[in-house]
Design goal:
The structure is a single chain. By secondary structure, the chain is α+β, with helices and mostly antiparallel strands. The chain has one domain: Heat Shock Protein 90 (2-Layer Sandwich). It is 32% helix and 23% strand. It is built from 4 helices and 5 strands. The protein has helices at residues 11-14, 33-47, 54-75, 119-129; strands spanning 21-28, 81-88, 92-99, 133-138, 144-151. Keywords: Kinase, Serine/threonine-protein kinase, Transferase. InterPro entries: Anti-sigma-factor_SerPK, HATPase_C_sf, HATPase_dom.
Length: 163
């Protein structure tokens, strides 16, 4: 039987890129964990040479800060530890912050005079702005994971039309 062209795609189209993978770390539910989580995510992106656009990375780091802050402020009583998981795909990334508190928050717009209460709303708005998605999921242990998935590069916008 003659050997014809292979039906398998070339390896470079099927093998994961060097930076693809899943990283997870835990931290105490303390305010000091907010900048530590942000720095850990930023450093991981640099170490893995992830081709993430600066604007997306800035958005991601703000989202990490908001999600970890929310976990520290609202779940620490039932969750002395939180977990941050970063999943990197070929052209997207996902960050999830998990805690053991069963309450699933809602994204509420706060009134003008409110000092807090906008964290999840801000995360959802930032995620949508770059073409990503965000949600809350139950964990196996009865807690929750709030996650945001973003593209590595901003969505292409059409150039303004000239008149």
């Amino acid at each position: 039987m003659p050997s014809g062209p292979s039906a398998e795609p070339p390896e470079e189209l099927t093998s994961p890129l060097a930076y693809e993978g899943v990283w997870r770390f835990t931290a105490p539910a303390l305010e000091s964990s907010v900048p530590q989580a942000r720095h850990a995510v930023r450093d991981l992106l640099a170490e893995q040479h992830v081709p993430v656009a600066d604007a997306i990375q800035d958005t991601l780091l703000l989202i990490v800060s908001e999600l970890v802050t929310n976990a520290v402020r609202h779940a620490a009583l039932l969750s002395p530890q939180i977990a941050v998981q970063l999943t990197l795909g070929a052209n997207w990334l996902r960050v999830a912050v998990e805690d053991d508190h069963p309450y699933r928050p809602k994204a509420l717009e706060a009134d003008e005079g409110d000092v807090g209460g906008r964290g999840l709303w801000l995360v959802k708005a930032l995620t949508a702005e770059v073409g990503g998605k965000c949600d809350v999921a139950h964990t196996a242990g009865g807690g929750k994971a709030i996650w945001a998935e973003l593209p590595l590069a901003p969505l292409a916008t059409s150039p303004p039309t000239s008149r």
